[in-house]
Amino acid sequence: MKQALQVVTRHFGSLVLLALSGVAVGADNCDPENGKKVYQICSVCHSNDTTGVHGAAAPNLHGLEGRKVGSVPGFKFSSALRDSGDTWTPQHLDKFLENPMAVYPLTRMAFSGLKNEKDRRDVLCFLSKSSN
């Protein structure tokens, strides 16, 4: 009985953590208008439109979610991103936006990170909604 209770508790804890990780970047719990304002920091280098034209110094972010990291045609990515084999999921984007150099130490992106969790969530919400 004790062993069964431990298994149930362990699985329940995993489900709670999984649910909470979705809250951190979930589209239902965000403010795309604030995300648009915060995105202005990103727009200095990045574009985010359907033309596919890249920004001044960085790739176009339109349709970013679900894309392979470092895979946008016409942009020369660092080998750290190009060879990562990763995919831009909401959770991965959240970690990257928080501290880009911790995720990809050799990235050329000159940005120290967006430390505010709500601002990250809102930027991701804005990008997701503007890509639909």
From TrEMBL:
SUPFAM superfamilies: Cytochrome c. PANTHER family: CYTOCHROME C. Residues 30-131 form the Cytochrome c domain. The keyword NADP does not apply. This is C-type cytochrome. Disulfide bonds join C30-C125. The keyword Transmembrane helix does not apply. Residues 1-26 form the signal peptide.
